[in-house]
Amino acid sequence: MMGILQDLARQRANAAAGAGGLIASAGNYAAENPQTVGLLAGQFAPSAGYLDFTGNYPDPMNPTQLLPSASQNLRQGNFFDAGAQTLGLIGDAMYAAAPFTLGASSLPAMALAVPRATQLAKRAKPLTNSEKKSQNIISLLKSGRADEVTDEMLELADTDYLNKNYDLPMDIESRTNRAEEMGFNVDVPMYHGTNSDEIIAFDDKYIGLVNDEGFYGRGHYFTPYQGEAGFYGKNVGKYNLKGNFLDLTRTDARGDGTLGDPKYFKWWANELDKLGGLDEGTKKAVKTLEDIDEYIDKNISFAKMINNDGTEGYIASIKNPIYETSDIHTPFKSPYLPQQVPLSKEGAKDSAKRRFINDMTTTYKYAENNPYKGLEDVSFSLSDYIRLSGKAGELSKKASKAGYDGIRVGDETVVFNPKNVRLPDARFDPRLQNLKNLKAGVALPLVIGGGATGLLMNQEQNPDNNVGLMGF
Fold first, then answer.
1. What are the C-alpha distances in Å from 358 to residues 193, 208, 370?
2. What is the DSSP letter of 223?
3. Which has the closest alpha carbon to 394: 275, 249, 282, 245?
């Protein structure tokens, strides 16, 4: 038995010497780093295959890091790595059997270690500056110091190197699960149009340089429609968003959405007032409309009328507060249409109310006895109120203070903080969720359109720099 063990010792020594020759051909990096040489030679040692297979073997090129396990390599699509690790594991089993086979299984065991050792030796090369920065990021993440990783570090890192050495599984299912856990909506992609060739990050400092600050608040604008995004830039990027959005979208319950709709106006004005974002003039207008509602409820009457199509409709008549002999009626539609008046009392009332408000702000604008003056200067449109009065930035600040991450109105969504935007191919690393620089966050090499011109009239504006949006 002693002779067998001595033979095994000599075989292992010869294997290590052979590995040294293999390392010598791997380039200057390996020759100048004895630790790398030792770790590559160690691939021929008993138990090395097991350690490598289970993810506990140091990376010869980066000794402070562990190589991915065979299961991690499989999830990341590195099938050749996983296959070589499996051969090494079988080799370990053959090493273990050597004393019982009179050493016969030791040579095949060493042969099974060759593919993995060769595989690792071929990677022995000097790290570029960007790869070194990538390795520094990986080291910080693995040591629990993610808060030290900055946007600038990610911008200068090598994306491919990070992809190959990252410590989280990068298969689609794993990334999707992390995205959902981080709160990103992966089911409804959003689009952003730009004339820039590439985006690294959305940057607040470029908002409003070409266009105004936005129709619905200061921030970065997105739409669920790719075609609409393309209207604002030739390059359209696809993104996932997260956050608590203040939804100011008009619904049937909030108004009919026509120009000057008082019902929707009162609704969105009250919503902004809850944030402290309504000016005194608009507050007064809301109060005036409420007074009008009260007046109409007390001074309205209805009459039936048969439409051209034979349906029964209604005409509403409101007592004129300026001239008592001239009531304000539901307006008639063209006699050539099937229906001239609404089919319900509520519809007739709303139509007559719109005429009543219009008459108070136009026909009787200068009447001394007009109790409803001032409405003519009110912006009934939400976008006009925000954009034309220069309140975009103020509204975003107040909404953010109230706990909102953005504002949604119809098919437009404005995001206040770039950290809430990611590419669908992002790593979705929860440790880096507070960063806005997303360049190193894609799972695969990717070139996309980013935002230097305005999507929905409001984007980061940077025509002189190629910037791009990737994502952690």
1. 39, 35, 13
2. B
3. 275
The residue whose two tokens read 């016969």 is 104
Amino acid type, 19: A
Tens of pLDDT, residue by residue, the chain (472 residues):
444 444 444 544 454 444 444 444 444 554 556 777 787 787 778 888 888 899 888 888 777 778 889 888 888 788 888 888 888 788 778 877 777 776 677 777 677 777 877 877 777 667 789 988 888 998 899 889 999 998 888 888 888 888 778 888 888 899 899 999 999 999 999 999 888 777 777 888 877 665 656 789 899 999 999 999 998 888 899 999 999 999 999 998 888 878 778 999 999 999 999 999 998 989 999 999 999 999 999 999 999 999 999 999 999 999 999 988 889 999 999 989 999 999 999 999 999 999 999 999 888 888 888 999 878 777 788 888 888 777 888 999 999 999 999 999 999 999 999 889 998 888 899 998 888 755 434 443 333 333 323 334 343 444 333 233 333 4
Q: How far apart are CA 300 and CA 294, in angstroms?
A: 11
Q: Which residues pair with 359 in a beta bridge?
A: none
Looking at this protein, which amino acid is placed at residue 459? Q
Q: How far is CA 223 from the centre of its chain?
A: 12
| C-alpha to C-alpha distances, 284 to 266, 289, 292, 375, nearest whole angstrom | 11, 9, 12, 9
The DSSP string of 145-179 is -GGG--HHHHHHS-HHHHHHH-SS--SHHHHHHHH
> How far is residue 140 from each of residues 66, 72, 149, 382, measured CA to CA in Å?
14, 20, 7, 47
